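Researcher: Quick test of sequence recovery. C-alpha cells follow.
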C-alpha cells in the first residue's frame, strides 16, 4: 500500500474512533446533555463517570496519534510543508485534549483550540491536493468549523447551547476527516 492510501486509512480510522468514542461516552455518561454539556465533560476526571472518561480520552489520544502519523506520511508523499504542519498541530492538540482533560483548566482550553483551529485550517489547505468536488467540501467544512469556533468564542450559541455549538466546531472536521480518508484511500485521486 502506498503512502497516500496509508494516510487515508489512518485518518479515516482516527475520525471513526473519535466519533464512536464521543457517542459511546455520551451514552454511558448519566444525564449527559448534548446541548448543555461540553464535549470535554466526557473526559473530565473530576466527575469520573467511568467508563466515559476513559473511552473519550483514549479515543481522542488515538485520533491525535493517527493524525500525527498521517501528517508525516503526507509530508513524505507530497513534499509540502504547510498541509502536514497543519495536520500535525491538530494532532498534537488532540493528544493534548486526551492527556489534559477539562479539569486541567486553561491548558485544556489551549489544546482544544489548537485541535479545532488547525484542524479547520488543514481541511481548507487540503483543497490543494484533492480534486473538485471534494476540494469544495474541504473548504466548506473548514470554514463551517472556523465560523462555529468564532461564534463559540463569542458565546453565541444560536439556540444550540454550548455543547451543541461545540459540536458545530468538531463535527465538520471529523466528518471531513472521514471523507478525506476515504478520498485518499481511493486510487489516483490527488492532483
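Model:
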Amino acid at each position: 500500500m502506498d503512502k497516500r492510501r496509508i494516510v487515508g486509512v489512518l485518518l479515516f480510522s482516527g475520525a471513526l474512533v473519535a466519533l464512536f468514542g464521543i457517542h459511546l461516552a455520551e451514552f454511558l455518561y448519566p444525564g449527559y446533555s448534548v446541548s448543555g454539556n461540553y464535549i470535554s465533560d466526557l473526559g473530565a476526571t473530576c466527575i469520573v463517570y467511568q467508563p466515559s472518561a476513559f473511552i473519550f480520552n483514549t479515543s481522542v489520544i488515538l485520533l491525535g496519534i493517527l493524525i500525527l502519523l498521517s501528517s508525516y506520511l503526507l509530508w513524505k508523499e507530497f513534499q509540502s510543508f504547510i498541509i502536514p504542519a497543519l495536520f500535525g498541530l491538530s494532532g498534537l492538540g488532540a493528544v493534548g485534549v486526551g492527556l489534559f482533560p477539562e479539569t486541567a483548566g486553561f491548558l485544556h482550553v489551549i489544546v482544544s483550540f489548537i485541535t479545532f483551529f488547525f484542524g479547520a485550517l488543514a481541511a481548507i489547505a487540503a483543497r490543494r491536493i484533492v480534486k473538485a468536488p471534494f476540494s469544495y467540501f474541504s473548504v466548506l467544512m473548514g470554514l463551517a468549523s472556523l465560523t462555529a469556533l468564532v461564534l463559540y468564542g463569542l458565546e453565541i450559541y444560536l439556540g444550540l447551547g454550548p455543547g451543541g455549538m461545540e459540536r458545530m466546531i468538531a463535527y465538520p472536521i471529523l466528518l471531513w476527516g472521514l471523507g478525506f480518508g476515504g478520498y485518499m484511500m481511493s486510487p489516483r485521486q490527488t492532483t
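The chain has a mean pLDDT of 93.
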